[in-house]
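We examine the record.
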Amino acid sequence: MFEIFNIVITNPITNLLVGFYKLFVLFHVPFAFGLSIIALTAAIRFILYPFTSSQIKSAHKMQKIAPHMSAIREKHKGDSKRQNEEMMKLYKEHGVNPAAGCLPLLIQLPVTISLYYVLRTAVAIHSLKSLAPINKILYFDFLKLQRVWDTSFFGMSLGDSPSKLFAHMPLIILIPILTGVFQFVLSKMMMPEESALVPTTAKQEKKEDDFQAAFQKQSMILFPIMIGYFSFSFPVGLSLYWNTFTIFGILQQYILVGPGSAKKWLDKVKRQ
């Protein structure tokens, strides 16, 4: 099963990465390896665009009708059949398919995981001084690497972690900080505007809404902190991939459904 996963997803991504690298080297573009990571991540994002778009739009619609769903559950408490009937009417009225976001996510997840492992292997060969892990899965001879690629990128090594470089390069701490900030912005945008929420009157429902809101706010803070911590410990090349992936996610989120709960920030910036 794992071998099939490599053949179908991991190996093609590896060949695409090396292809970008060879292209940049051919035209003598500096920092070829770092730019290859950015180009590969952008290419994967564009390939997945139809699937991520479907997921984002579906999630946005579900957020908009969430208060109505809560009202139905409260109104028909104890009558699951009536709840299901009213839910189906609500979905039909608002043009929502509750399963629409599942398939795109199932398609994206293995590709995203594979991309991570490809880049981990790519940055590792610099320290291993071995081309075998890459060359053995390349499709064409002209793609095969003759020497280990240079992982330097604007004065830092993409194969080293910020924790390792921090002693003689203190500003490297900006990478995990920015990684956390980008993730926080995306998480904020994925939350609905408070003005779009319809308040419910039932006390029990309000408790559930308050709990859900508190959980979302905590996740919105804790997850970026966790990502920032991982970014401090993992090779810089992986942070470059993650930040590129997140920035494209921010742009896609904004284009498709707007800034979400980050709208307050934009309004403050516009007023200044």
Residues 145 and 206 are 60 Å apart (CA to CA). The beta strands are 152-153, 156-157. The chain has one domain: 2-271.
